[in-house]
Design goal:
Blueprint lengths: L12 H54 L17 E2 L22 E4 L9 H5 L7 H5 L1 E7 L4 E8 L12 H7 L3 H6 L4 E4 L15 E6 L3 E8 L6 E8 L4 E6 L5 E2 L4 E9 L8 H4 L9 E10 L7 E8 L12 E4 L2 H5 L13 E4 L3 E2 L10 H5 L13 E3 L1 E4 L2 E4 L1 E3 L2 E2 L11 E3 L2 E4 L2 E3 L2 E2 L4 E3 L2 E4 L2 E5 L2 E3 L23 E7 L2 E4 L4 E5 L2 E2 L2 E9 L2 E4 L2 E15 L1 E3 L2 E3 L12 E15 L2 E3 L2 E17 L6 E3 L2 E13 L11 E3 L5 E3 L1 H4 L5 H4 L3 E2 L6 E3 L14 E2 L4 E3 L9 E8 L4 E5 L2 E2 L7 E10 L9 E5 L3 E4 L6 E5 L4 E7 L2 H4 L14 E7 L4 E7 L15
Parallel strand pairs: 14-15, 15-17, 16-20, 17-23, 20-24, 21-25, 22-27, 23-28, 24-29, 26-30, 27-31, 28-32, 29-33, 30-34, 31-35, 32-36, 33-36, 34-36, 34-37, 35-38, 36-39, 37-40, 39-41, 40-42, 41-43, 42-44, 43-45, 47-49
Antiparallel strand pairs: 1-2, 2-3, 3-4, 4-5, 6-7, 7-11, 8-9, 8-12, 10-11, 12-13, 18-19, 46-48, 50-51, 50-53, 51-52, 53-57, 54-55, 54-58, 56-57, 58-59
């Protein structure tokens, strides 16, 4: 019988295969672990050798420095000694604000390839005798600071040290090798020692960021850390919600910010050329002027580093703010304002603009990124048929503000035909303040609008010259109005609007213009010419006008084929005109037209016209007039031979009658006689004007120059000359003598009649101190032009010599002083600086 063993079967083939597989896996793990251990040991050995080189090089450089041989390792721009610039900030460099911070230009390096060449610095930094021959004969790089003579780091390898890529510099390649993990990943072929600095290499997260500067240029700066100094790619995506534009930035285009951060700057919108406009930089793919989303996605060549992205929002042409109403452009800088022009390819959906901050086009020497620094002093008039509103009042970010535009300059070469802030406009403009507006020429010129061919409504808008903003600084005064330097020039010019065509109409409310205008054809205080319809309410003009035809408010409102078939329609209500008119043809106190409807207003213009010119006290012919007045023809200069024409529906008034305190309300309830603190004279003819003596519209401050008579009892500046005569400035008069030598000066009260010693006038000054003006003796002075005698009573020394400074505005150096004349029931506030000449003002807008 056969002997069979039961219940003792062998391993199956499957079981044997499983066992073999487990053994293989265990063996592979053991081998990999062994390789890793070997690689780490190899890396440690290389790093230790690099440390030996570091110490040797540092000792050698200390010897050279002590012996006065620093020249042996200094950087040579001709690179004859083999010293090269590192040209980047090492990954392990100290922080930017550290005392030993490093810049791109701090470090230099030498390489072992030059160690045996005569005249090369490598032999001086690490001579053969300083280390073992094995180390010296292999490959190394020494980085150091030639200025301090300190070694920064040492690299060592038994193989040739190269970047391996022609597009990658040696310093860039070695910068990555500062990270131990990168050196291991590279096969443990290079050793590195950088003193106590160690990069762990454990950070493997990219952190992209975007900074956006939306001012006179739209500049986006894209940042990302680079934990392993690997090559990064920036993918920038710009979206307007409908379309996208993608810009890919290669590693070679990036710049190093510090040891761990790289960046790229993109000027997305600039007015320097057509190529730099947002429209062209995004290949015409995106809507201009709408909010955009900017996304930065960063990719690394290192497979162990995950890509990341970051997103910011802004506006391509204007200021960005969340919850901005659709179709509204926010204007915070000059670029934003200029981008309203169609040249920016602004979207048709932008129909309104709101100004949210003051704009200055002057050269701010303390700011190298202002409008002037980038674009000079030239602005192009805005043309945009889709824009229907512009508002200078804003409520953004819980801030309420009435904004101004100052020192805007439009050169003749920068505009074509019509010139102004807007070359033409259709819609509503309100709450706009233009100071120091200058236009060199054009066909139809207005500070606000060149020409109007549709319907325009203007509300609460001002055009004037501001002493506080420097418009009147360094202007040489003249002796006649036609010599005053013009601010607006052209063929047909108005303080607000150049021309209203036969298809246009305009209404002006609560607005004013006070500037200097010179025109070839017609010059009007508010509008140059109207060929259809204009309504002016609660508004005034006080301008210097020089042209063939001038008008206090409107120069021309009549004509031939250019006028609408229905004729012109001019309506005035609660208005006035002041200033100076120089005309070779016709001059009009108010409007150079007929059938004018006028209620409640006056003209106080002064005329300087040629012999055969006609002067019309108000208009050519009134349609109807109620409570309309004009200053008598005593204002005519020179021989007064001009023909003076008056409308029978208007009433003449002398200076005294027109300036009486109770007369204002006879004109209209819109007027007031209280003008002290609301007056801002220019004194371009050195008139010594202080406050506006005629009725003023209660809602508006008064700017400009006007004819005025001497104001007895006013505060004036006076000078004493070497011949013991005197002159003074103020009280609407100037008798100063520039040809005489000044031996003394001061401030005084000026009177047309000599005061009694018993008269009482109280001066309140410096922290509410009071003093009495002494009338015991007077300084007598005579105006040589009129042979009129005046009496000056100087302020006492205790008033003038105070060192008081207004704590609320310490930079002004102006003091408040109140003159109270009990007998005449007057109480007048002034501001002045007693230590400087001609500083009296009657308002709080101190220079």
């Amino acid at each position: 019988m056969k002997n069979r063993r039961k219940g003792k079967a062998g391993f199956t083939m499957s079981e044997l295969l499983i066992v073999v597989a487990i053994v293989i896996v265990l063996f592979a793990v053991a081998v990999l672990s062994l390789v890793t251990i070997q690689k780490n040991l190899r890396q440690k050995e290389l790093d230790s050798k690099a440390e030996i080189l570091y110490v040797a090089a540092q000792n050698r450089m200390s010897e050279l420095r002590a012996g006065g041989y620093e020249s042996l390792y200094q950087y040579d721009e001709n690179k004859k000694n083999g010293v090269a610039k590192v040209g980047l900030i090492p990954l392990d460099a100290p922080e930017e604000d550290a005392e030993d911070a490093i810049t791109k230009d701090t470090l230099c390096y030498v390489v072992s390839a030059n160690r045996v060449e005569v005249g090369k610095a490598a032999a001086s930094v690490l001579p053969e005798s300083s280390v073992d021959a094995e180390l010296w004969n292999n490959h190394w790089v020494i980085e150091y600071d030639p200025e301090s003579g300190s070694v920064y780091s040492a690299f060592y390898s038994e193989e040739e040290i190269t970047s391996g890529d022609a597009s990658t510099t040696l310093p860039t390649y070695l910068n990555r090798m500062r990270v131990r993990q990168t050196r291991l990943h590279n096969g443990a072929k290079i050793g590195y020692y950088g003193g106590a600095r160690v990069i762990s290499g454990t950070t493997d997260t990219l952190k992209p960021d975007i900074s956006i500067d939306n001012r006179e240029k739209l500049t986006a700066t894209f940042y990302c850390n680079n934990p392993y100094a690997d090559e990064l790619t920036f993918n920038i995506k710009v979206s307007d919600g409908q379309n996208e534009y993608v810009k890919v930035v290669k590693y070679s285009e990036l710049r190093q910010l510090n040891s761990k951060t790289w960046y790229y700057t993109w000027v997305m919108d600039s007015l320097e050329s057509e190529k730099t406009r947002f429209y062209n930089q995004t290949d015409h793919k995106l809507a201009c002027g709408t909010d955009i989303t900017v996304t930065l996605s960063v990719e690394s060549q290192n497979a162990n580093v995950d890509g990341k992205s970051y997103t910011r929002k802004t506006n391509s042409l204007f200021r960005y703010a969340e919850s901005t109403p659709a179709g509204t452009a926010l204007i915070a800088y000059g670029r934003h304002l200029q981008n309203l022009d169609e040249a920016s390819h602004v979207s048709k959906t932008i129909t309104g603009a709101v100004q949210v901050s003051d704009l200055s086009f002057a050269d701010d020497t303390a700011d190298n990124e202002d409008w002037y620094s980038f674009y000079g002093d030239t602005f192009t008039p805005i043309t945009n048929k889709h824009l229907k509103s512009y508002d200078g009042y804003s409520e953004v970010d819980n801030v309420k503000l009435y904004s101004s535009i100052s020192n805007l300059y439009i050169k003749k070469a920068a505009q074509n035909g019509d010139a102004g802030l807007f070359s033409t406009f259709n819609g509503e403009i309100k709450n706009v303040t233009l100071t120091g507006m200058k236009i060199d020429g054009g066909q139809n010129v207005g500070a606000l609008i060149g020409s109007v061919s549709d319907t325009v409504k203007i509300t609460n808008t001002r055009v004037y010259l501001s002493s506080k903003k420097g418009d009147l600084a360094d202007i040489e005064t003249v002796d006649s109005p036609e010599k005053v330097k013009p601010w607006l020039e052209g063929k047909v010019v108005g303080g607000l609007i150049g021309m209203v065509t036969k298809t246009g109409s305009v209404s002006v409310t609560d607005s004013s213009a006070s500037t200097v205008i010179r025109a070839d054809g017609a010059a009007g205080g508010l509008v140059g010419a109207v060929y259809n319809a204009a309504t002016i309410t609660d508004s005034y003009a006080d301008c210097y006008l020089t042209a063939a035809r001038t008008g206090g408010l409107i120069a021309k409102a009549e004509g031939g084929s250019e006028v609408a078939a229905t004729g012109t329609s001019i309506t005035l209500k609660d208005f006035y005109a002041a200033g100076y008119q120089t005309a070779t043809g016709d001059a009009f106190g108010l409007v150079g037209g007929s059938n004018v409807i006028a209620t409640g207003g006056y003209s106080a213009c002064v005329y300087n016209v040629e012999e055969n010119a006609k002067v019309h006290s108000t208009v050519n012919a009134m349609g109807s007039a109620s409570n309309v007045y004009y200053l008598t023809d005593g204002g005519l200069s020179s021989d007064g031979t001009s023909k003076w024409e008056n409308d029978s529906q208007t009433t003449q008034k002398t200076y005294k009658e027109l300036s009486e305190s109770g007369f204002a309300k006879e004109i209209s309830e819109a007027f007031t006689s209280s003008s002290g603190a609301a007056t801002f004279p220019y004194n371009l003819m050195d008139q010594g004007l202080t406050y506006y003596t005629y009725p003023r519209l209660e809602k508006l401050n008064h700017y400009g120059d006007w004819q005025a008579e001497f104001e007895s009892g006013a505060l004036v500046y006076y000078e004493r000359y070497e011949d013991e005569t005197y002159g003074f400035y103020g009280a609407n008069l100037s008798t100063l003598k520039t040809s005489k030598f000044v031996v003394g000066d001061g401030y005084a009260l000026a009177y047309i009649e000599k005061k009694n010693a018993s008269d009482s006038v109280t001066v309140t000054y410096a922290n509410d101190q009071t003093a009495q003006v002494s009338f015991n003796s007077a300084i007598e002075t005579t105006d040589d032009t009129t042979n009129t005698k005046y009496y000056l009573y100087p302020l006492s020394k205790e008033v003038v010599n105070t060192e008081y400074i207004d704590t609320a505005e310490p930079d002004t150096f102006y003091q408040k002083i109140t003159i109270e004349d009990t007998a005449n029931s007057t109480n007048t506030e002034y501001y002045y600086n007693p230590h400087f000449a001609k500083t009296v003002t009657v308002n709080e807008n101190k220079p």
